Amino acid sequence: DTDRVGGDFTFSYYGHDMSRDFKFDSNYLNVNTNPKLGPVYTDQNYPGFFIFDHLRRYVMNAFEPNLNLVVNTNKVKQTFNVGMRFMTMDMFIRSDQSTCEKTDIINGVCHMPPYVLSKTPNNNQEMFNNYTAVWLSDKIELFDSKLAITPGIRYTFLNYNNKEPEKHDFSVWTSKKQRQNEWSPALNIGYKPMENWIWYANYRRSFIPPQHTMVGITRTNYNQIFNEIEVGQRYSYKNLLSFNTNYFVIFANRYYAGGYSPQPVNARSQGVELELYYAPIRGLQFHVAYTYIDARITSNADDIAYYFTGIVNKPFDIKGKRLPYVSPNQFIFDMMYTYKHTTFGISSYFYSRAYSSMLNQAKSQTVCLPLNPEYTGGLEYGCNSVGLLPLYFVLNVQVSSVLWQSGRHKITGSLQINNLFNMKYYFRGIGTSPTGREPAPGRSITAYLNYEF
């Protein structure tokens, strides 16, 4: 009986063979502009300056069978989902290097020699990784689908095989194998006391597997675990009103501290989300949203004091510090009005100030210092920049209209202005620009005209 038992089965294959070539030089962690403090980031004419040419090839193959099965009785409807995914990722990594020697400097300008293969073993690797994930979930609907309970489980097998040469002549290679397996349970509960109102509670466990990179300071050899919980409700009234509220909390275990601590940390991110859609009259719609986020370190962890000598001159515990790049207060406001053949729209975004480092220092400071090239992929000098990300407010406006129409012939046009008030703000990051600031786009104007015939 297909009314009681039904479903579908799919089998998917996907893959790619992709090559990438990217470069960076030995100044990429340096934002120093004062020659009295050390090498300045614009100086490329000194013995030892080098450019890395990273050659990468990624070969990925994967297949995924997936079964959905619906079993419907008079009182209970169940939707089973069972599947698995197997994926292989083979990565071939080679690094060429061009290094400025004394003999390459003529009249104060270095004439970079041709690239040669880097003889550093860990700059030339082959990785043969695969993972297998299997999952099962069961959506149970009761009381004419007013109550839905969906437990689920996912288990992931990670197999890493990293090959790199033991010697600089590449005559002997060694293999390093790593196994990481994780359970990822989940539970979703939804209850509809009335047709247009739903309450929900969700839980999910997820993880980020070990991350490998050629710059050792950002390498992890452990799983980062996340337990996510959210509780909320959604209410709608006809096509006039929709109001959503949501509380969320994410517990992070063994969270990568971004170089601020030699060991992983625990963290908690929690907050509330409020969202309203309102259409008071035909053609007019408002959208307002607000999010508050409190994201902090919850475990004791000492900082790496050496990287911040000159800003903080003694070790300290980063427990209780806010996570960087997280704006505690975020607002969104949109409005759209359509009259006859013309539509006018406004969209705006506000993000409050945020710290750019786990130091949680508001004052903008930059310190530069020698680095250990064995730990930083060959870099001998770098800088740390701390301070606040500024608050920013962006307002965009757009108007579009059908200017002329006759039968199937039509002329439409639109005018859009992004960042109407030309607000100046910036992002912060490593290796982006002096003092670690990367400017965001200013005001831009786009005019569009289209003729259909």
What's this model, at a glance?
With 453 residues, the chain is mainly β.
CATH topology: Maltoporin, Chain A
| Percent range of helical residues | under 10%
- The assembly state of the depicted protein chains is single chain
| First-last Cα distance | 52 Å
Which stretches of 5+ consecutive residues score pLDDT under 50?
none
Which structural class is indicated by helix and strand composition?
A: mainly beta
What general form does the structure show?
globular
Strand residues, percent: over 45%
What is the averaged pLDDT score?
89
Instruction: Count every helix, treating DSSP H or I runs of 4 or more residues as helices.
Output: 0
* Fourth-tier CATH superfamily name: TonB-dependent receptor, beta-barrel domain
Which architecture per CATH? Answer: Beta Barrel
CATH first level:
Mainly Beta
Q: Total number of β-strand segments?
A: 25
How many strands, which pairing sense, and closed or not: the largest β-sheet? 17 strands, antiparallel
Question: Could you walk me through the main structural features you see in this protein, from its secondary elements to its overall organization?
Answer:
This protein is an all-beta fold and 453 residues long. It is built from no helices and 25 strands. The protein has strands spanning 5-25, 50-72, 76-99, 105-106, 109-110, 116-117, 125-142, 147-165, 173-194, 197-208, 224-237, 241-255, 265-278, 284-297, 329-339, 342-351, 354-355, 365-370, 381-386, 388-389, 392-406, 409-418, 426-428, 437-439, 444-452. The strands form 5 sheets. The chain has a 17-stranded antiparallel sheet that branches. It is found in: Cell outer membrane.
